[in-house]
Amino acid sequence: MKACLSRAVVLALLSVLGATVAHAISAELKCQDGVAKSARNYFKSHFGAVSKCENKRAKGSVAPTVECRPKICVGGDRDGLGCGDDLDCPGGGACQSNAGLDADTGSSLGDAAAKLQEKIGGKCSDPLPTGVILGRPCGTTGALAVADLVDCIVNE
Question: How far apart are CA 133 and CA 60, in angstroms?
Fold first, then answer.
């Protein structure tokens, strides 16, 4: 009888510990999965908005002077061309926000960024769990808040 009771207590403790570990792991996995899915959707929306604008320019339905890229290289060998970061602006150029961005494209990109914030915020808490593994460049800093991660995804 004592052995049976001891065994029941041990099993109960193990199940509680197992549930706690599973809950902690699932929160990290839930966050990491949410970040991956939300980032993929953001990039798809970003590419779609820029492509739509570029297609309009190519068809002539908007002026060729309309800017479709949210960032441009100022100075250097790629002056006036789109860029992703300063490495794309050789010869002294710098990547800057494009003040002449098409209004429709800017609105679409803003909506996509807001949705990214909402989706990641719904899956992750501040700061992000330490077990959430992010790729470069967003995962190279210390503890990240959701807003910092969204800013990194949108701007890097």
Answer: 44
